[in-house]
Amino acid sequence: MNFNKCSRCGCFFMSDSSVCPNCQTKDMYEMGQLKDFLEENTSKINIDSLSASTGISVKNLNRFLSQEQFSEFSGQIQKDDGNIGIQL
Ligand SMILES: [Zn+2]
Q1: CA 20 – ligand 1 centroid, Å
Q2: Residue 86 and residue 22: Cα distance in Å, rounded?
Q3: How far is the CA of 8 from the centre of ligand 1 (A)?
Q4: N or C, fewer C-beta in 10 Å, the chain?
Q5: What is the pLDDT of residue 85?
């Protein structure tokens, strides 16, 4: 076990995950919302519109979408021109 810095709130915690236990609940909830949304809306959408539609921040969306469980939806995400990449 190591000290990790939470990807959401920035606090330090002891765990192997990327978010602290407090934020893990929020992460699970938002990932569920995101999955539901992408399953119901099969048309292409960019990150900004996705953020506006789901209420999930762009930063968190990028983090979720970089995960294995969302790889099946990657084709649905419209990348903006320019250097928008996965922000870690
Ligand atoms: Zn946190």
Answers
A1: 4
A2: 24
A3: 5
A4: N
A5: 52
Distance CA(4)–CA(85), nearest Å, equals: 23
Measured torsion, CA atoms of residues 26, 28, 33, 37, in degrees rounded to the nearest 10:
140
Rounded distance from Cα 62 to ligand 1 centre (Å)? 17
- How far is ligand 1, taken at its centre, from the CA of residue 25, in Å? 10
pLDDT at position 15: 85
DSSP code, position 69: G
- Ligand 1 centroid vs 9 CA: distance in angstroms? 4
Provide the residue ranges of all domains of the chain, joining segments of one domain with +. 25-82
